[in-house]
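[agent] plan:
  1. take the single chain provided in the ticket
  2. run structure prediction with default settings
  3. attach structure tokens to the ticket
  4. add a short note for the reviewer (M.T.)
[agent] executing step 1
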Amino acid sequence: SGPSSVIRERSSLVWYSKSVISYLLACFAKEMGLILLGLIIGYELFVAKKGSGRRALLRFTPFVLIGIMYWLFRGHALGGNAAGSRWWGGSPVNNFLMMLEVYARYVRVLLLPVELSPLHLVSEPAGFFEWPVITGFTLLTGSLVLVALALKRRPVPGFFGGWFLVALIPVANIIPIPGLYMAEKWLYLPSLGFCGLAGYLLDRLLSKNARAASVIFGVAAVLFSVRTFYWNRAWHDEGSLSRAILRT
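[agent] step 2 finished; step 3 output follows
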């Protein structure tokens, strides 16, 4: 109570206003800005643990209104078509089955970045009982369960796992995106959650065996850097990109 509390309250209001304005700008810069709402709610509910009650609802309201406003404006700007109009595989069911395989591929790309391509090809499944679909379903179900359990017991890694899943939703093609159903470039925001998990794991390992953890993550960092360096050649210019697509 007193002048210091007034200053803190004004400072909090300034930062909150900056956050709302930044969210507005982020949404209208690119659709991926929408995920910030999910991250804010997840952080306040599970990490900061101050996201319940009427005050929390009031804090979230401007973000929700901005998200709705953006989506309505997007639909208007695209002539009433806020997303794709064609289901991959010809139906919502086939679309969902194809996206299960895509999810497994995304996880594999993050863990083991091999067989990279500017143009990924996914065949239409005949049904659920195909290994790519079953693998994707198992990975997705396991991810959801692990994140739910972690949010209760270890909120920080749970939050980063949730970050990966929430950031993947806008590009997961559950609502089809015209042109592509999978693109490595769409992983740039989901990968931040993955990197957060890696950092958390490194911190835990360092507290137990600093030398081994440093070697493991050092080697991984070098290998990933070399892979990135060589893969960037495919994106050097239009000619190199076209040749990479033709090879695929």
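[agent] step 4 note for reviewer: The mean pLDDT is 87.
[agent] ticket updated
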